[in-house]
Recover the amino acids of this structure.
């Protein structure tokens, strides 16, 4: 049968003020390419009629979206929660992608350009950055690494537009896919 109702997305990283006046600044936003997304979000279905409500919370940890909580609640005058309600849900990865993409905002590379876009087509482009990269990108990383194996290969991969940590991670992923050989520290053989 499935859950029915209005779907909405919540930014859980927003600044909040408690009753005692203390301020919780939440988690800082996460940047993916030219978009910024909240570090914590929620996918919410507000149950309609007698349908139960659903709330699933996600957070970016180590550059990956993870589910941190699932809450299903029957409406006071409605029916109970059924197995079919849960089976009809799409996978958590897809729900996380939808929530982070919906709340993503485009930012300019130049900090002096204050243009912030809310164009949905540009937010959808952020989906590729939320998920793992394709083989073509890893092949490019492997090619650049091999070409510069004698002269700082990690820095050469950084020049593709990555931070040092991301460049190292992409090199590890290329090795895991067999695009680069395993190495021993201090020996160069790519």
């Amino acid at each position: 049968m499935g859950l029915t109702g209005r779907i909405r997305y919540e930014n859980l990283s927003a600044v909040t003020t408690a009753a005692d006046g203390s301020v919780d600044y939440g988690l800082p936003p996460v940047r993916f390419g030219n978009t910024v997304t909240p570090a914590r979000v929620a996918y919410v279905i507000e149950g309609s009629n007698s349908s139960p409500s659903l709330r699933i919370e996600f957070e970016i940890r180590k550059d990956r979206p993870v589910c941190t909580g699932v809450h299903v609640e029957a409406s006071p005058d409605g029916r109970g929660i059924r197995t079919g309600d849960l089976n009809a849900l799409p996978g958590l990865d897809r729900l996380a992608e939808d929530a982070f993409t919906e709340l993503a905002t485009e930012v300019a590379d130049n900090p002096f350009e204050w243009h912030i876009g809310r164009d949905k087509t540009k937010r959808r482009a952020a989906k590729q950055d939320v998920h793992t990269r394709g083989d073509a990108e890893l092949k490019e990383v492997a090619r650049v690494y091999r070409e510069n194996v004698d002269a700082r290969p990690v820095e050469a991969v950084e020049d593709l537009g990555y931070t040092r940590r991301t460049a190292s991670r992409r090199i590890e992923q290329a090795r895991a896919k067999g695009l680069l050989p395993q190495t021993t520290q201090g020996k160069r053989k790519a």
User: Anything to note?
Assistant: The chain has seven helices and nine strands. The chain has two domains: 5-110+117-124, 133-176. The mean pLDDT is 78.
